[in-house]
Amino acid sequence: MTGETGAEAHYRALESLYAAAPINRLFTSRLEIPREGESRIHFEIEPSHYHAAGAAHGTTYFKMLDDAAFYAANSLVNDFFLLTTAFNLLLTRPLKAGPITAEGRWVNGRRRVLVADARLIDAEGEEVARGTGTFMRSRIRLASLPGYARS
């Protein structure tokens, strides 16, 4: 992160914030924000994520879709943490163990409410789920959060 300023420093700080979140100790994952309004999360589905029928539980889909959409939206907001206010899911295929990518994309809004969508892509390049969320600015300053450090 050294030497980066402006938007790039904000993106790297959001990536650090993601990595520092306690929930991410339960998931082998890595966030990258390549540019404003976009995010990618690379992660591994493991058997510990399975429901009783031997495929990933819906909570895994939600977590990765929500995170990808959230970070795509928060890449446009450099002062406050966003909160998910609604999220719709469409699950189209069961997920087994292996690599998955969540791709997030900002859709609309820049002031109080932002809309972003996300999709999950399996190792064969097939979409297995998608979702759309609405996110609103909280009163929580990003700079106050452990893990969000700009240099």
TrEMBL record:
<dbReference type="InterPro" id="IPR029069">
    <property type="entry name" value="HotDog_dom_sf"/>
</dbReference>
<protein>
    <submittedName>
        <fullName>PaaI family thioesterase</fullName>
    </submittedName>
</protein>
<feature type="domain" description="Thioesterase">
    <location>
        <begin position="54"/>
        <end position="129"/>
    </location>
</feature>
<dbReference type="InterPro" id="IPR006683">
    <property type="entry name" value="Thioestr_dom"/>
</dbReference>
<dbReference type="Pfam" id="PF03061">
    <property type="entry name" value="4HBT"/>
</dbReference>
<dbReference type="GO" id="GO:0016790">
    <property type="term" value="F:thiolester hydrolase activity"/>
</dbReference>
